[in-house]
Amino acid sequence: MNMRKYRLAWIVTGLLIAFALLGQSAIAEPTSAPAAATVAGGYWSTFRYEYVAGATFTPRTSVVEWRYPGGGCIYAASNPLQILNVPLSLPQGSRIDYLRIFFYDTSADQSNAWITIYDGAGGFTDLTHVASTGTAGYGTALSPFVGHIVDNASHSYVLNWQPNVAGSSMQLCGLRVAYRLPFDGTFLPIVTKR
Amino acid sequence: MHKRRAMWAMIVLALLLSGVTFTVLAEQVLNSSEEGPARPLTVVVGENEPDMDSRLAPVTEAVAEPRPLSEQEAVEGLRMAALEEDAPDLDGYTGPRRQAPVEIFSEPEGAERGDWSEFFLEPQPDQDAGALEQNDVGAAWSAFRYEYVAGATFTPRTSVVEWRYPGGGCIYATSNPLQILNLPLSLPQGSRIDYLRIFFYDTSADQSDAWITIYDGAGGFTDLTHVASTGTAGYGTALSPFVGHVVNNANQSYVLNWRPNVAGSSMQLCGLRVAYRLP
Questions:
Q1: For chain A, how many structural domains are there in total?
Q2: ipTM over 0.90
Q3: Do A128 and B88 touch (CB under 8 A)?
Q4: φ and ψ at residue B195, rounded to 5 degrees
Q5: A-contacting residues of B 48-107, CB under 8 Å?
Q6: Which structural domain, as residue segments, surrounds residue B121?
Q7: Assigned domain for A22 exists
Q8: In this predicted structure, what is the pLDDT of residue B76?
Q9: What is the pLDDT of residues B18-51, one digit of tens each?
Q10: What is the chain A residue with the closest CA to B104?
């Protein structure tokens, strides 16, 4: 084997080792989100979802007329500035990360969906908001990140939708809350026999 | 000679390392948390009933309405599926996290508000710090969990009732106040319902009533407990007696009820909260 072959062989060997080492480091630290994300010092599960059909929403006041167009959707036939809602029940201590709206929208306007918490004494906070967008028909949109920790002792949670437009050009087909459960498991020490 | 042996040893080592790397990377791709193609559905059922445990059976697809998916809807469905890829609310998302100030949509700020500190001067029986000894069975039950629903989510049992939203998550009836508004109550199987608490706004001389009812689906029912709004001071809260009912979702449906007894904004339901424990 002459010097040129030696060099070539060493280069190939070096490349193979570099590939193997890079691959191993990628395995050790995946760029995708790990199964248990650690945020703000705590450990959280992968996403859980609370997904409610638009057809289950009812208006906060009886002045609204509403219709069912099919596909689990709903629309207001009158008083579209009034709000339709549904209770939101999530596990104590879980973290609300996102609200996603699924809609049918052929209107130039937009509808709004959001999460509100109430304290039972007239106090409230809107946690996040997401709007239907476009005029193409079926679509979906995502809220900004929320990061709210659920406290069922102090607050009731409600999903709201305001159509803003009367008629079937603006329909709510669903709202989906993405949340995470806290990890509070006990980690036992490893016992090894020597 | 030594150089050649060393080189071959390095080549063999490199090939082994590469093989391991390929294998692990391939497994990660196959076991990715990204949603894959739809799988055939199965459900655990038992006693030949589709909503009971114990045997595997194919799901019978229920048709909610006779509306076939149009071609346009199918295309839109694909578009929505494409939108789902790499979304921040899916596991595996690696992009930046967007945060934004929240606009207020619920109602204008500045409405009258109550102050709970005057009602909770001491630990309450439906709080862990105030749980009565005789109602607790030690380690057999968890600390309190709560199902807290806003009054604004209640709807009447009959369409003869008209109702309004005064703000703050409350509700009141404007007609037929003896009719009942209700809401399904969903609690974990085997949990124990200990208390029902009402949050109200009441400036009326009358009282409104709230209670939990269980139904057996064959006309049978039982009211588990009852609590009334009291006083005329405006915002307030009241607690039911201890209940101690163990939830059996296989045999009963659970419903929260409220009867205003008075029409108008002087009698509002702002919330009901069930305190329960897990086994």
A1: 1
A2: no
A3: no
A4: -145, 155
A5: 64-65, 67, 72-73, 76-77, 79-80, 83-84, 87-94, 97-100, 102-107
A6: 116-277
A7: no
A8: 62
A9: 555 444 434 433 333 333 333 333 323 234 443 4
A10: A126
